[in-house]
From TrEMBL:
Keyword DNA-binding: yes
Superkingdom as given in the UniProt entry: Bacteria
Gene Ontology molecular function terms on file: DNA-binding transcription factor activity; transcription cis-regulatory region binding
PANTHER family, sorted: HTH-TYPE TRANSCRIPTIONAL REGULATOR BETI, HTH-TYPE TRANSCRIPTIONAL REGULATOR RUTR
Protein name: TetR family transcriptional regulator
Residue ranges: DNA binding: 30-49
Species of origin: Streptomyces fagopyri
Pfam family, one: TetR_N
Gene3D superfamilies: Homeodomain-like, Tetracycline Repressor, domain 2
Keywords noted in UniProt: DNA-binding, Transcription, Transcription regulation
HTH tetR-type domain residues: 7-67
Keyword field contains DNA-binding: yes
UniProt cross-references to PROSITE patterns, sorted A to Z: HTH_TETR_2 (PS50977)
Length: 190
């Protein structure tokens, strides 16, 4: 079983795996194909995770962990409450932009990966609730019910995540997040 602390080589391999999977999806790859594409052995892959399913889950977790860190850094560098909401949702959109439709579809169909995406969606919705509550407390937003706005955001984020917004509107996930940012800020502004 892989250790929680990775070597630089393992981290590099995981990052290359993330790049490959987010560009091309993962359902159709075999471990042999992954080893060939990544130019490594199965043993090396098994040092990251014990099976293809666990490997995919680790790659998805790594992607979202890295994305969350980058998003929070952007928010930390922003002070105005409305800007923080826009920066947060636009940063989410930017992090989703490079994800191929095949990867998103594979994630939706593969429960361990979908669980990671859903957990990150819940965390993002909670973060929006907090940003709205902070803006209301600072007097920058109308006195809206932050938890309700957060629930609306969460529901929309879940529809984006499941591909429903893309199917009904033609918007990519990233474009939908950008539209959501604009909608929320305009809805809560005085």
């Amino acid at each position: 079983m892989p250790s929680t602390r990775r070597t630089a080589r393992q981290t590099d391999l995981l990052e290359r795996l993330v790049v490959l999977l987010t560009a091309e999806g993962f359902a159709s790859f075999t471990l042999d194909e992954l080893t060939e594409r990544l130019r490594c052995s199965k043993t090396t892959l098994y040092q990251l995770a014990g099976s293809k399913q666990e490997l995919v889950r680790e790659a998805v977790k790594h992607y979202f962990r890295e994305a969350a860190g980058a998003i929070e850094k952007q928010v930390a560098d922003t002070s105005a409450p409305a800007d923080r909401v826009v920066v947060y949702l636009n940063a989410v959109a930017e992090r989703l932009r490079p994800l191929s439709r095949r990867f998103l579809d594979d994630m939706a169909e593969f429960e361990p990966a979908r669980e990671v995406y859903e957990a990150n969606t819940r965390l993002a919705a909670a973060r929006i609730r907090q940003l709205i509550a902070d803006g209301v407390a600072a007097g920058a937003f109308r006195d809206v019910h932050a938890a309700f706005v957060g629930e609306v955001v969460a529901a929309t984020m879940q529809e984006i995540q499941r591909g429903e917004v893309a199917a009904r509107t033609g918007l990519s996930d990233a474009e939908a997040y950008a539209e959501l940012a604009s909608l929320i800020v305009h809805a809560v502004s005085p």
